[in-house]
Amino acid sequence: MSALIMDGTSVATSALAETAERVRDFTARVGRPPVLATVLVGDDPASHTYVRMKRSRCARVGIGSRSVELPATTTTAELVGLLAELSGDPAVDGILLQHPVPGHVDERAAFEAIAPHKDVDGVTTRSFAAMAFGLPGFASCTPGGILRLLDAYDVPLPGRRAVVVGRSPILGKPVALLLLARDATVTCCHSKTADLAEVVREADVVVAAVGRPELVRGEWVKPGAVVVDAGYNPGNVGDVEHATARERAGLITPVPGGVGPMTIALLLEQTARAAEANAGLA
Ligand SMILES: Nc1nc(=O)c2c([nH]1)NC[C@@H]1CN(c3ccc(C(=O)N[C@@H](CCC(=O)O)C(=O)O)cc3)C=[N+]21
């Protein structure tokens, strides 16, 4: 058997078309497009590439973007100051602080400086809490994008065993909570998990979100399981070993062309929603 591929590029393209329409309406009514501010600290080449992709996708749907690039020597106080300024700037609707920031910067403090109504990337404690309680708010983009993709392929979740590998605050932990909210029976694994292979073998749905190339081996995949590879590692290598996983899974996301495009689609949709709310339209 060979898995059906979950085509994130194609699902994201439809989502972007809907966002483009929203953006056209917004621009006609408000007289300016929604604006996303992207903030990048340091000179990690992969982060530059991701931010460039996000900005070019903004341009494609008619969202304006403002790019702020800060040196690797930026202090926590400087970054917090900048984010507070963007939070108070009426010309900015959404703010994305690209993760990771240099090690000496307190990333949590920086995320918390983003005003909740502009947190289109869903990284603040307020957004996390809203997501965890099932209240309206902005989802963390990769987890939200993963759920959209599962829905686009009608993956049943109630009562199914979901195993999330990874527990980061903007990926593993929120995706585990979203799956729980959809009535999956969720196990969240991490570096201290004993017998990871045995846990993954139980999964009807596996979400790999650790950032370790090919950590999840294809032979761990239960035949017919749904495999979501949310890993982003250098060279477009995911967290799943795909050659074998593809032979065993029922559905699998490719890398590239799976979760990545969905992440960006959600970011832009949430930017359009933020702009509508900030302009009093929603
Ligand atoms: N605050 C924050 N929010 C994020 O959402 C965030 C972040 N920080 N830091 C880095 C990761 C990474 N990330 C990706 C988004 C899209 C692709 C994507 O679209 N990739 C293409 C491939 C691109 C290529 O060809 O290189 C694909 O998968 O098809 C990848 C990675 C968002 N991230």
UniProtKB/TrEMBL annotation:
Catalytic activity: (6R)-5,10-methenyltetrahydrofolate + H2O = (6R)-10-formyltetrahydrofolate + H(+); (6R)-5,10-methylene-5,6,7,8-tetrahydrofolate + NADP(+) = (6R)-5,10-methenyltetrahydrofolate + NADPH
Pathway stated in the Swiss-Prot or TrEMBL entry: One-carbon metabolism; tetrahydrofolate interconversion
Domain Tetrahydrofolate dehydrogenase/cyclohydrolase catalytic: 6-121
Family indicated by similarity: Belongs to the tetrahydrofolate dehydrogenase/cyclohydrolase family.
Keyword Hydrolase: yes
Biological source species: Saccharothrix xinjiangensis
Pfam entry (one): THF_DHG_CYH_C
The protein's Enzyme Commission number: 1.5.1.5, 3.5.4.9
Tree of life domain: Bacteria
Keyword NADP: yes
UniProt subunit comment: Homodimer.
Keywords: Amino-acid biosynthesis, Histidine biosynthesis, Hydrolase, Methionine biosynthesis, Multifunctional enzyme, NADP, One-carbon metabolism, Oxidoreductase, Purine biosynthesis
Name this polypeptide is given: Bifunctional protein FolD
Ranges for domain Tetrahydrofolate dehydrogenase/cyclohydrolase NAD(P)-binding: 140-277
Residues given in the record as NADP(+) binding sites: G166, R167, S168
Biological role: Catalyzes the oxidation of 5,10-methylenetetrahydrofolate to 5,10-methenyltetrahydrofolate and then the hydrolysis of 5,10-methenyltetrahydrofolate to 10-formyltetrahydrofolate.
